[in-house]
Write a structure and sequence with these properties.
Number of strands: 2
Order of helices and strands: HHHEEHHHHH
Structural class: mainly alpha
Largest sheet: 2 strands, antiparallel
Distance between the termini: 46 Å
Number of helices: 8
Helix content: 55-70%
Strand order of the largest sheet: 1-2
């Protein structure tokens, strides 16, 4: 497991090919981007929450992984309510800020839509090992091996970078460099550590690129073999169909309620 992937409980979703998880999340996201209404987003979010419990994440892992989304969604909705397009009756007004019935409904739709689009991707990919995802992209989607392996190597370095940042901070503290006072001192401390981190990352990336080239990872027009075969079977098809069903039910509910509004219309 990567440092970017939490230790998850064995589950059916964890054993599904990552390409199917990515396809299901993208399918729901694309359909939800076609309209901005409360009904479709609310229905999709409710159905997703019923199924995300099978992803294998504990409650703590779920909230830690999705916490940025729970912060960003209300902020996006609040911004739309305060500064969105005004329509309908005016509910509150102060200076250049106006809250109307239309902006309130639009803000609620934006907040629900951010959650409905973001949650499946975060939770499904949190139950995926990066190596499995690379195997699936190369063998199932047939993406170029150089691109896939380079992206995988870069993703692995992100985990090492987190550990390097912590070790660098401890080392600077042991040498007395971290004794900064005031906001200016904190900014200078952060800038110095960030520059040192940049130097370490460039050196490590150069060494990794050289090592991968020496081992033949950069060869063109070569049929590459894979240690672990990536298959796309009945479980993967079922997950993609489940994502399509969620998107279809959400659209059908919005059309039935009369709230569906195609964004390009």
């Amino acid at each position: 497991m990567s440092i970017l992937t939490p230790t998850i409980r064995p589950s059916l979703v964890a054993r599904i090919n990552p390409v199917a998880k990515l396809a299901a999340a993208l399918l729901i996201s694309i359909v939800l981007l076609l309209s901005i209404d409360v009904v479709s987003a609310a229905v999709a979010l409710a159905l997703e929450l019923l199924l995300l419990g099978f992803a294998g994440l504990s409650a703590r892992q779920f909230w830690l992984r999705t916490s940025p989304l729970w912060i960003a969604a209300p902020l996006a909705g609040l911004t739309t309510v305060l500064y969105g397009v005004d329509s309908g009756a005016v509910l509150w007004e102060w200076g250049f800020i106006t809250v109307t019935e239309g902006s309130l409904g639009l803000g609620l739709a934006i907040m629900l839509r951010v959650l409905a689009i973001g949650l499946p991707g975060i939770v499904l990919l949190a139950s995926t090992d990066p190596t499995d995802l690379a195997d699936g992209l190369a063998q199932v989607v047939r993406l170029p091996a150089r691109f896939v392996l380079g992206a995988l190597a870069g993703l692995r370095l992100v985990g090492l970078g987190i550990e390097d940042w912590r070790s660098l901070g401890l080392a600077r503290r042991a040498r007395g460099i971290s004794d900064a006072r005031g906001p200016i001192g904190a900014v200078r401390l952060f800038a110095g550590q960030a520059f040192a981190m940049l130097v370490i990352s460039v050196r490590r990336g150069s060494k990794l690129a050289t090592a991968m080239e020496a081992r033949g990872f950069g060869a063109d027009h070569v049929e590459r073999s894979w240690a672990r075969p990536s298959t796309f079977g009945a479980r993967e098809v079922l997950l993609v169909m489940l994502g399509a069903a969620i998107a279809a039910v959400a659209v059908a509910a919005a059309v039935w309620a009369g709230t569906w509004s195609f964004v390009l219309a």
